[in-house]
């Protein structure tokens, strides 16, 4: 009887102490445990409110420690140009993000939030960051995919310098019509080139440097915009892509095959429609194809207020938008401001059996998998130790290399026997002209410091004018005049002129263009200068533009795309330190009436064909 009583007492003590032991040891916090066990352990502890919170991404302007704690918010973002302060230092970024993170860590389960930003050509929102060429330029370097991997790694390190572990990049759109305002975010019109450029993903998400704590400088990448964003009618941003399934799978889908194989952490859905169905509501392609057929294991995120646009006008029936978007398979929603409306809407739909709890669990499981994999639970807070890498000289040299390799030489003198480039370093007097010659903002384009980009010296870097000055012989007289008249040029007896003109910065729908003409005074400057002196025209554009009317006057023509902060790379090839090697990633049309026109089309009559690019040899210095 005594032994039996003792056994019952011990059993009672075990059951009483069980919850206490369980409270002291949460398996999900143990990095030595298998990933799936950690996810399962955490999921079983979460309430519905905590699960819904993980599905929410809010803008940093509405985020605070209190909001994170009260609503269990899973992610925060900087929208285009959103920073803690103008010209904020890396330390300022780290302090802001850590303050928000502390709110997440004060919750019952201490699930860290994931901070995201559009680092689409370097860490472009951060002041003094290295600004790499936009993707269209990198597409011209396609003979060297290892280059974009290095750019990804450099971008990751500069992001981590400011405490940010998640980028909404790369854009793997296959732009089929240059009238689209996001065409410069696309590597090429050819899906094979875009597939090769997905090598940036292992760069972003890649190897951890020696002596670095786990999770650094790894950042989660985001392949976007799923799917068909580059094929919309007339290139209108967010418009409808009309294409059969074979065309969709062979043109727009291939880069996603490579991205999933390379382990991309997240995929963003496109604003656009596919054959009339909004992609944010396309369950067949998000859940059916991406998750089930391609076996994508990361999480799917909406675009900025993306589910709002399921209805027309946007946000007309938000309950319906939530139902369609979440039901289609979107795991995290970039709300980004009115988060309580989304949270309340999801909760109501779940509690009334319109959204199955299994759909919520699938979303949260995917989000947690990314957070666990990148070491966010072990290292949720950033510090200042990597601040020195922001805009480092090593990264600037890499960007300079990328600029050199991205430049495409379209014309070079009267004939092969009389090339104008390489230019002579020593001359009596040379002219540099054009709106884009000494304007770093124009040189960097959209998505630089601000969403749309802007004119002027908005960050640190080298303008093309400065680069030319540092490359010529000290005895050469250099004159810069932004908009010279023909009479002025003739009076000054210049040896040659370099004209740098192009598009003004833009992004997304603001950049949609039906005429693709050079903004004035670009075309006038070309005509005035090239009529009076031998001229090299350098185009700073995110896409091919109308240039045929001026081609006979131009002696040498260079497509420099949107080169970024390191303009010295332009001078490197102009003066023959390196040769031109870039090849057109896009077909250069004669007139806009030909558009859309892509390589392989039946009626293909370009000014310069896809893959064209003259080659020069570097000058051997004795």
UniProtKB/TrEMBL annotation:
Alphabetical keyword list: Glycosidase, Hydrolase, Signal
Keyword Signal: yes
UniProt domain Glycoside hydrolase family 3 C-terminal: residue ranges: 407-614
GO molecular function: beta-glucosidase activity
Keyword Transcription regulation tagged: no
Entry-linked InterPro entries: Cellulose_Degrad_GH3 (IPR051915), GH (IPR017853), Glyco_hydro_3_C (IPR002772), Glyco_hydro_3_C_sf (IPR036881), Glyco_hydro_3_N (IPR001764), Glyco_hydro_3_N_sf (IPR036962)
Signal peptide: 1-23
Occurrences of domain Glycoside hydrolase family 3 N-terminal (ranges): 47-370
GO BP term, pick one: glucan catabolic process
PANTHER family in the record: BETA-GLUCOSIDASE (PTHR30620:SF91), PERIPLASMIC BETA-GLUCOSIDASE-RELATED (PTHR30620)
Protein name: Lysosomal beta glucosidase-like
Source species of the chain: Dorcoceras hygrometricum
């Amino acid at each position: 009887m005594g032994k039996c009583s003792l056994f019952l007492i011990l059993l009672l003590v075990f059951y009483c102490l069980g919850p206490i032991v369980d409270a002291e040891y949460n398996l999900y916090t143990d990095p030595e445990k298998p990933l799936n066990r950690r996810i399962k352990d955490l999921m079983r502890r979460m309430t519905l409110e905590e699960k819904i919170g993980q599905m929410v991404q809010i803008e940093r302007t509405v985020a605070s420690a209190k909001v994170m704690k009260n609503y269990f918010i899973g992610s925060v973002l900087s929208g285009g140009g959103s920073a803690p302060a103008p010209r904020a230092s890396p330390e300022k970024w780290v302090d802001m993000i850590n303050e928000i993170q502390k709110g997440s860590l004060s919750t019952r389960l201490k699930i860290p939030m994931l901070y995201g930003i559009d680092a689409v050509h370097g860490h472009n929102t951060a002041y003094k960051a290295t600004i790499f060429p936009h993707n269209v330029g990198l597409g011209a370097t396609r003979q060297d995919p290892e280059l974009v991997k290095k750019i990804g790694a450099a971008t990751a390190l500069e992001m981590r310098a400011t405490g940010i572990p998640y980028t909404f990049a790369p854009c793997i759109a296959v732009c089929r019509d240059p009238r689209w305002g996001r065409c410069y975010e696309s590597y090429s019109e050819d899906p094979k080139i875009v597939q090769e450029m997905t090598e940036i993903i292992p760069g972003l998400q890649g190897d951890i440097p020696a002596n670095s704590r786990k999770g650094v400088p790894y950042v989660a990448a985001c392949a976007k915009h799923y799917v068909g964003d580059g094929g919309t009618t007339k290139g209108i941003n967010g418009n409808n892509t009309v294409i059969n399934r074979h065309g969709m799978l062979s043109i727009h889908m291939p880069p996603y095959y490579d991205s999933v194989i390379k382990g991309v952490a997240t995929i963003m859905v496109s604003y656009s429609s596919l054959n009339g169905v909004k992609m944010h509501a396309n369950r067949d392609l998000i859940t059916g194809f991406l998750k089930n057929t391609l076996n994508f294991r990361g999480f799917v995120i909406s675009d900025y207020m993306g589910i709002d646009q399921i209805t027309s006008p946007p946000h007309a029936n938000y309950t319906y938008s939530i139902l369609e978007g979440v039901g289609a398979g979107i795991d995290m929603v970039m709300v980004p401001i009115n988060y309580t409306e989304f949270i309340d809407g999801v909760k109501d739909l779940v509690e009334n059996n319109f959204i199955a709890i299994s759909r919520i669990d699938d979303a949260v499981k995917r989000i947690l998998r990314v957070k666990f994999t990148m070491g966010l639970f072990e290292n949720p807070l950033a510090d200042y130790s990597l601040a020195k890498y922001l805009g480092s000289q090593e990264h600037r040299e890499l960007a300079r290399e990328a600029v050199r390799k991205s430049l495409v030489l379209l014309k070079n003198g009267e004939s092969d026997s009389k090339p104008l480039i390489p230019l002579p370093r020593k001359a009596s007097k040379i002219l540099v002209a054009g709106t884009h010659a000494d304007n770093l903002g124009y040189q960097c384009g959209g998505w630089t410091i601000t969403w749309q980009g802007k004119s002027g010296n908005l960050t640190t870097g080298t303008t093309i004018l400065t680069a030319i000055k540092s490359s010529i012989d000290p005895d050469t007289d250099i004159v810069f005049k932004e908009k010279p008249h023909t009479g002025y040029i003739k009076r000054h007896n210049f040896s040659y002129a370099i004209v740098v003109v192009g598009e003004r910065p833009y992004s997304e729908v603001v950049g949609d263009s039906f005429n693709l003409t050079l903004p004035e005074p670009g075309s006038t400057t070309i005509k005035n200068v090239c009529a009076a002196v031998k001229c090299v025209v350098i185009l700073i554009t995110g896409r091919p533009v109308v240039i045929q009317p001026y081609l006979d006057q131009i002696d040498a023509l260079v497509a420099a795309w949107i080169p970024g902060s390191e303009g010295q790379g332009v001078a490197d090839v102009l003066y023959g330190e390196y040769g031109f090697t870039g090849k057109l990633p896009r077909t250069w049309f004669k007139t806009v009436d030909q558009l859309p026109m892509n390589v392989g089309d039946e009626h293909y009559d370009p000014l310069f064909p896809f893959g064209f690019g003259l080659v020069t040899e570097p000058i051997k210095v004795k």
